[in-house]
């Protein structure tokens, strides 16, 4: 089951859980209405997994690589971590499959409130084009994840405000339609 919740307003270390009090959990249906898709897979067999292959085929996720985010493995670690946590959007889907370790994807809901999604081993998530979001490691400071892409990857992140992009307009129209 996905673990997601509304965040508190505290600006201390982003790697802490930041659960709102009282707790406001978020379920799969709420995420789906934001265009966020989630699957639980068996990460031990990621190299040959018919379930993963099916998702990749159905959603045209032809491209993939594996990124390990930790101080020792990621060049320019500090800088990248900072960039990941800046609120931004992309013009295409962002797709991540956690193979080891864990981290948090934060996404804005339709009222612009932060929802925090805990991603651990076996969690695959798709963030729609045009959604404002950010990523942080948690207190383990380690994640190994597969990055997937439909076609040739484009990594450009547009920091907020980025409302003039067509992808943003389309996303807002999608939100209205699922409201
Ligand atoms: C991104 O784009 O935010 C990243 O690749 C980091 C998260 S991967 C678990
Ligand atoms: Ni992103």
The largest sheet, given as strand count, sense and whether it forms a barrel, is: 9 strands, antiparallel
Ligand types: 4-(methylsulfanyl)-2-oxobutanoic acid, nickel (II) ion
CA-atom Rg in angstroms: 16 Å
Per DSSP E runs of 2 or more residues, the count of β-strands stands at: 11
- Residue runs with pLDDT of under 50 for 5 or more positions: none
User: What do we call the CATH homologous superfamily?
Assistant: Jelly Rolls
What is the count of DSSP helices, taking H or I runs of 4+ residues? 4
Distance between the termini: 23 Å
Class, according to the CATH hierarchy?
A: Mainly Beta
CATH fold call: Jelly Rolls
Give the rounded overall mean pLDDT. 98
Beta-strand percentage?
25-35%
Which range best describes the helical content: under 10%, 10-25%, 25-40%, 40-55%, 55-70% or over 70%? 10-25%
Structural class: alpha+beta
CATH architecture descriptor name? Sandwich
Domain unit count: 1
Order of helices and strands: EEHEHEHEEEEEEEH
Topology:
Blueprint: E1 3-6, E2 25-26, H1 28-33, E3 37-40, H2 50-58, E4 63-69, H3 77-84, E5 88-89, E6 94-108, E7 114-120, E8 123-127, E9 133-137, E10 143-149, E11 158-159, H4 166-178
Antiparallel strand pairs: 1-2, 1-7, 3-8, 4-10, 5-11, 6-7, 6-8, 6-9, 6-10
The structure holds 4-(methylsulfanyl)-2-oxobutanoic acid and nickel (II) ion.
What does this structure look like?
There is one protein chain. This protein has 179 residues and is an alpha+beta fold. The chain has one domain (3-178): Jelly Rolls (Sandwich), CATH 2.60.120.10. It has helices spanning 28-33, 50-58, 77-84, 166-178, and strands spanning 3-6, 25-26, 37-40, 63-69, 88-89, 94-108, 114-120, 123-127, 133-137, 143-149, 158-159. A hairpin with a 5-residue loop joins strand 6 (94-108) and strand 7. It starts with a strand and ends with a helix. The structure holds 4-(methylsulfanyl)-2-oxobutanoic acid (KMT) and nickel (II) ion. Nickel (II) ion (NI) binds next to loops.
């Amino acid at each position: 089951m996905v673990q997601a919740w509304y965040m508190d307003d505290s600006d201390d270390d982003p790697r802490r859980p930041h659960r709102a009090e009282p707790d406001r959990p978020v379920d799969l249906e709420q995420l789906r209405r934001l265009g966020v898709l989630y699957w639980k897979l068996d990460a031990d067999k990621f190299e040959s997994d018919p379930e993963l292959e099916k998702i990749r085929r159905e959603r045209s996720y032809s491209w993939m690589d594996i990124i390990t985010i930790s101080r020792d493995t990621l060049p320019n670690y500090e800088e990248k971590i900072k960039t990941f946590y800046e609120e931004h959007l992309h013009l295409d889907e962002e797709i991540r499959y956690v193979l080891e370790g864990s981290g948090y994807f934060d996404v804005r809901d339709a009222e612009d409130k932060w929802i925090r999604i805990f991603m651990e081993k076996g969690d695959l998530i798709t963030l729609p084009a045009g959604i404002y979001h950010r990523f942080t490691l948690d207190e383990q400071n380690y994640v190994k994840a597969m990055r997937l892409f439909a076609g040739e990857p484009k990594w450009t992140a547009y920091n907020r405000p980025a409302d003039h992009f067509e992808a943003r307009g389309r996303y807002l129209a999608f939100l209205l339609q699922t409201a």
